[in-house]
Amino acid sequence: MKPIYFQEFVTSFSEILSSDNEFLALAAGGSWIDGRMDQFSDIDLVIIHQSETISIEDKKALAESAGDLLACFTGEHVGEPRLLICLYNNPMLHVDLKFVCLPDMASRVEDPVIIWERNGVLTDVLTQSVAKFPHPDLQWIEDRFWVWVHYAAAKIGRGEYFETTTFFSFIQQTVLGPLALISNNELPKGVRKIEFLLPEQDLTFMKNTMAEHNAESCLNALQNTVRYYRFLREATKPDSLQINHRAEQVVMAYLSDYANQSSR
Q: How close are the terminal C-alpha atoms of the chain, in Å?
């Protein structure tokens, strides 16, 4: 259940925006949309403005006006420089402020909940366009997957277990998580909230792709990663998917040989 102070923050922020003609609307995205918010959630806000761009100084000044701002930084690391990631105190809140020029709202990954707007301007844009959440390219994944598996096997062989466990995290985030969510009629948001969204069978598969810092555990996790990928590939593949059978067979033979050598 959404804490009452979440709503209080958003209501107060909308009042701040409405007093400045630069701003046209405020909307909420993420878990605010589907009602899955709890006390540990972030607040994802979209601030619609008139100018083509807003300076970072003005963005930070606006963020500071909204509450007891502890720290903030921009979102280049997630490919979104328009984003200002904020941490507030009293109460402690993680709030993502995404600054978007009104016409750019026609291109979006979700339909946000409108908190406040001037003269229905955001409603007009949303009703005249369609949200498109990006889905993984299964051909892109298949073209790379067997190279990735060989890479991981080589790292295990060399004893680079930290590198290997980082690899498993990458595969979970980039491949297994999104495909598992798609196969269960959810949006492919990496591994976000999969503990709550996936059935027990998938969660067991995913848990088995995690590894401890040793060769045996990493090798088992890699073999389980391949099994789960094959299962998900079959469940989600389009008719157009071109499976690289030769690479799959050769890499799996390499992995099998290495597993047999390790067990001696």
A: 54
Gap between the Cα atoms of 264 and 121, Å rounded? 69
Q: Which residues pair with 68 in a beta bridge?
A: 89
| Nearest-angstrom CA–CA distance, 169 and 147 | 16
Q: What whole-number distance in Å separates Cα of residue 263 and Cα of residue 254?
A: 14
pLDDT number for residue 36: 81
CA distances (Å), 78 to each of 39, 75, 84, 138, 191, in order?
Answer: 23, 6, 11, 21, 15
Using CA atoms, how far residue 248 sits from 78, 130, 251, in Å, is: 31, 38, 5
**131-167 core/surface letters (b: 16 or more CB in 10 A; e: else):** eeeeebebeebbeebbebbbebbebbeeeebeebbeb
∠ Cα 125 127 128 (to 5°): 65
Q: pTM of the entire structure?
A: 0.86
Bridge partners of 88, per DSSP, are 69, 93
List the one residue out of 189, 221, 196 whose CA is nearest residue 207: 221
- The pLDDT, as a whole number, for residue 260 is 74
Q: How many residues does the chain have?
A: 264
Tens-digit pLDDT profile for residues 243-253: 999 999 999 99
